[in-house]
Amino acid sequence: MTERTSASSEGREESPASQLIDARIRELGDWRGETLALIRALVREADPQVVEEWKWRGVPVWSHAGIICTGETYRNVVKMTFAKGASLEDPSGLFNASLEGNTRRAIDFREGDRIDEDALKALIRAAVALNLSAKESKAAARPRKARRTA
């Protein structure tokens, strides 16, 4: 089951997905909830048109023309996985997990880690741009139907 909502920069509408993410943050009640809340805020700042989703039995997902990233919480880490992270430039060296794959890349945040907010927002914007360019490429590659004239 996937819950979705679009989030605008002014007056975000509360959807089932947003409510579930809010509940997850409250339920954690420790540094992991604070970190997930900060990640969420940075995603929203970086992309005011982001869509929040709740997938795979409890994973917050942020999308725009495809999945940007997820926010998974574990006992000792909050993991932010970028769906197409292997295709992104990471000049600040934020990626520190899932480095061996051909597609995804992740950032593991541990208790006490400082988040480079500007670098993370730049990475999020790059992921959105990649999704949008892939969407445009697919649209351009589709054969157009010939028009019939009478």
Low-confidence stretches: 4-11
- Could you tell me the radius of gyration in angstroms? 17 Å
Helix/strand order, N-terminal first: EHHEEEEEH
Instruction: Provide the CATH topology.
Output: Aspartate Aminotransferase, domain 1
Give the helix tally. Answer: 3
Count of individual beta strands: 6
Query: Would you identify the CATH architecture?
Result: Alpha-Beta Complex
Strand order of the largest sheet: 1-2-3-4-5-6
Q: How far is the N terminus from the C terminus?
A: 47 Å
Strand content: 15-25%
The level 1 CATH classification is Alpha Beta
Structural class: alpha+beta
Relative helix content: 25-40%
> Can you tell me the overall shape?
globular
Task: State the domain count.
Answer: 1
In brief, what are we looking at here?
The chain contains 3 helices and 6 strands, in the order E-H-H-E-E-E-E-E-H. The protein is an alpha+beta fold and 150 residues long.
Structure characteristics:
150 residues; alpha+beta; Aspartate Aminotransferase, domain 1; six-stranded antiparallel beta sheet; 3 helices; 6 strands; 21% strand
Describe the model.
The chain is of the alpha+beta class and 150 residues long. The chain has one domain: Aspartate Aminotransferase, domain 1, CATH 3.90.1150. It is 36% helix and 21% strand. It has 3 helices and 6 strands. Strands 1-2-3-4-5-6 form a 6-stranded antiparallel β-sheet. A hairpin with a 3-residue loop joins strand 2 and strand 3. The relative contact order is 0.14.
